[in-house]
């Protein structure tokens, strides 16, 4: 029986720590605020935005809400970001993705000041991570590191395999595991003999974007398995990229879906709202 890594409990712990730090800053007259921009009314995005605002409220972070109509132009959105970049009482900026098709996401994300880039997507923050300098780190992979460490597992010296190389999950994940002194292999759709590689992993992070694809035949007995995937199955229930029922009996530890990596993403976003006070010094 694997240990079930409880992302709900760990994310609550992190939000409580953030709440405490926000209160300490408030006592010094410093307020923490996050601008959340949504363009259009995509229902899934609206749920994410609502949850982010709820988490801000819990932590004592002021959320500045910008709900813009679908027909907002790229220039109008850029203007808002430029305004927020200069605003002293805004120290984090988040643009909810996806944006409507007529807006170029890359142009928008690059306009966010690297000092307020709470999602950690700006090339300067990605660069800082790759050369080990301080900066914002993308929330989901940062959450994975917290899950592993706070569950009592060390990364140093371990064989770590990441399935997936996206800019949002796979690549920053690999860099973070490397920063923790893991021996890291990144796999992707052109990897030959995927199972041979993944079966070497002491720590296997799965971000392949394919429902329940990774079963026990990909996993070494005693591995720590982190499932980043989120999907709805045939019964409209949430499932991950890992076939949980197949892998759980042979793993040392595993994250469930839901209740594993998912809750960590918002908790790390809250933590990132404090990063400004380190990077903007
Ligand atoms: P992407 O689709 O951007 O990336 C998937 C990666 O998997 C790619 O690098 C791709 O390789 C690789 N891949 C696809 N098929 C195979 C295969 N057969 N063998 C080996 N590698 C393969 O997904 P994301 O990184 O954005 O997300 C991954 C998962 O995590 C998704 O399920 C997503 O929903 C979830 N997610 C969850 C979050 C959370 O908060 N919990 C946040 C973000 C994502 P290649 O590069 O060669 O195409």
Describe the protein in words:
This protein starts with a strand and ends with a helix. Strand 2 (about 35-40), helix 2 and strand 3 form a beta-alpha-beta unit. The chain folds into two domains: about 30-115, 3-Layer(aba) Sandwich (Rossmann fold), CATH 3.40.50; about 140-260, Rossmann fold (3-Layer(aba) Sandwich), CATH 3.40.50.720. Strands 1-11-8-7-5-6 form a six-stranded parallel beta sheet. A three-stranded parallel beta sheet has the order 3-2-4, sandwiched between helices. The mean pLDDT is about 95. The relative contact order is 0.17. It is globular and about 50 Å long. It contains eleven helices and eleven strands. The chain has about 280 residues and is of the alpha/beta class. The protein has helices spanning about 5-25, 45-60, 75-85, 105-110, 125-130, 140-150, 170-180, 195-200, 245, 260-270, 275-280, and strands at about 5, 35-40, 60-70, 95, 160-165, 185, 205, 225, 230, 240, 255. Helix 6 packs across helix 7 and helix 6 (about 140-150) crosses helix 10. The chain binds NADPH dihydro-nicotinamide-adenine-dinucleotide phosphate.
Global mean pLDDT: 97
Largest sheet, described in full? 6 strands, parallel
The H-level CATH homologous superfamily of the largest domain, spelled out, is: NAD(P)-binding Rossmann-like Domain
The number of E-state strands comes to 11
Work out the count of structural domains. Answer: 2
| Low-confidence regions | none
State the secondary-structure class: alpha/beta
Describe the strand arrangement of the main beta sheet, using strand numbers. 1-11-8-7-5-6
Tally of individual helices: 11
